[in-house]
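The data are quoted verbatim here:
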Amino acid sequence: MLKSEIRKRYKELRRALSPEEIEKKSMMIANLCLQIPIWERSFYHIFLSISEQKEIDTSFILNILQGKDKEVIIPRMNSQDNSLINILLTDNTLIKKNRWNIPEPVDGIEITSEKIEVVFIPLLAFDKTGHRVGYGKGFYDKFLIECSSTVIKVGLSFFEPIDKINNIFAEDVPLDYCVTPQKVYDFNKK
């Protein structure tokens, strides 16, 4: 399937989910995240969910990170160049929704991309080789290229993988793991 077809299909599948299903599946994903060997790291980047898009509720993972005293970094979009600005989440961080209803920090302590060790990545769908389909603006691909070569990339998906995304580009950064409500997919195993 092509990315445009996948985007359309998986947006429809997400729209069909009830709030109760989203909460249950999000909690299952958070619990399975505990099985990934990432918890000895210090700096974790996580997106804040767009409830209007019926995204995975990342508050469960956020609670785990805060419970483990990890440094949590959240993104703010720079729509002028489709980049992400990485802000340290603190007790004083003010969060507001931008014009696309994405919750993001108003300001705060900026953290360089190279310092981030684990990134939880939003997506619409992924395939069996670890490639993903997002919203199509390239924010995360651009950001991931700026990160260290050792950064661990963890996708979060309500749905199991499709066989293959047909139009993968050189700048598309594959995942190391993807977590669904049923399973952790490890793309580092050959």
Observations:
- Residues 19-33 form the longest helix (15 residues).
- The chain has one domain: 3-186.
- Residues 93 and 107 are 7 Å apart (CA to CA).
